[in-house]
Give the backbone structure.
Amino acid sequence: MLDRTTVQIRLANKNDHQLWNDYVKGHAKATPYHNYAWVRSVESAYGHLNTSVVATIKQGEQEKLVGVLPAIKMRIPLKGARLCSLPFCDVGFALADNDDIRDQLLTQLTSLFPQICHYEYRDSEHQVFALEQQGTKVRMLLPLPDSSEKLLAGFKSKLRSQIRKAEKNGLSFEVGCNQILLNHFYQVFIYNMRKLGSPVHSKAWFQGLFEQYKSDMLISVVYSENTPIGAGIVLLNNDKACIPWASTLAEFNRLAPNMLLYWSLLEYVSERGFKQFDFGRSTFGEGTFKFKQQWGAEPVALNWYLPNQSKTDESTNLATNTEAGKLRTLVENTWSVMPIGLTTWLGPKVRKYISL
């Protein structure tokens, strides 16, 4: 173990971008959200302050990173300033060479901002969730074989027939990362978010991710003839892929675009050697959980908490117990009946303050 006195903890800066990402790519527990592109995109799109910290040691005349903790300071109307690791995604836990360095990162971050009482740390278990407890928030993780052929063969016949149904209905897809696909994704996304009664992320947010992640971002768009009817974004890191957003247009759901959308992305990443696909957050036993489970994904518990409280106290698991604020509840109750132009304009002004 490194001598505690040799480790220096400081705020990250723009010059750490490459060092940070090199460290993340070499860490077994890293997720695509740990890419420095995420915090930079939050900063550029929404103006929240990047308060990430790094742990370093001296290696000759050079600094060597031995730990990173991504974090964002959000100033929320009526609630004040909050720290979050990380907003707009499922996880943002510290990565470090050992537990002692991880603890130092957490301690130093909170000491740098003593006036901020609320710091939300989004951790995750790293083993399959065994307890069948309704209401528990989980990540749904699918181990990938070394080819899409093996993956398809492992699906139940009903799932394979649903994928074929989409193809028989004349749907097609394109997977890549270009501006046209991003525009088509957002075109579908804004309609789906309005239907769900949820404020939409700004186009600038996705544009920032597109520009920051570059080849570590994939977009799939499903078409009926030339009309985009389904779309999703996948982020990549090492041998892991995650899908933060997927949307379809409800009036085309009878054609099964959702099945073709997910298959297009699973096929793509499995053929390129990725070993894990993260379907994202679900509530144990509910509809989205069952949808992801049918692909073979297994639940891993999320553990969101305030670092100055006990992680083992179930009542402090913010992933399970987070309640919508009054503003968000009001918006959700009225959003789906508002004109699409209004929700597209107003949504980002609200969404930037919702860390989920």
